[in-house]
Amino acid sequence: MNSTKTYIENRKNILSIYFTAEYPTKGSTQEMIRSLAQSGVDMIEIGIPFSDPLADGPVIQKSSKIALENGFMLKNLFNDMKAVYQEVKIPLVLMGYFNTVLAFGIENFLKQCKAVNIDTVILPDLPPEVYEKQYQQLFKKYEVAPVFLITPQTPLERLNYINNLSNAFIYAVADTSITGSKSGFSDKQVAYFKRIKQYSFKVPVIVGFGISDKETYTEACHYAHGVIIGSAFINAIDQTKNLNKSVKQFIQFIKN
Question: What is the DSSP letter of 187?
Fold first, then answer.
């Protein structure tokens, strides 16, 4: 059983925070994980910086650029994870682009994930069909589950396919544009959330894209197991002089 899936299923109103590794400053990844874990978040999504992050808006693109300038290397991220993962009692999820994983070596990547208790990864540019035909057995060997994305335009047949292939959670994209903070949800988005809630998924559903405050967090949680917040959080820690304080203030802003 995927422990991240079990953890999410047993809780309500999951708050998952995305941050880019090696951002905002060089060497800050371990501090960020510890600060988030102590601040009351339910899950941490660690972004692997990439030079051409197609689904990400300007805020996350900028954080990726800075992280790469700070000397990010995937092997160093796994070293950071080795230093902290036994302290952290909430799920840690890696999010990145498949080219980075291919360059690192897929089996090496999965082996390193298993070594630091990562059982869930989000690779938005890995098509479910390619995963199923070429990589599923390798992922299963190392007990790592990929997360697939659905959008308001995902047809029912594909929804069924993704549901059957999923073993961790499903990432419901709240907006078909790039990531980034927006104010409130449109009627179309609410109708989409209602469709998600009525569908019998075998795994939990987490909503992302456009969650930026307590209002959007609370509303999205009415229809799903929880949310992922990325751009709004990265904006909150940009230029901070006290990372731990800024992290806690942002989580309080969302939760309280």
Answer: H
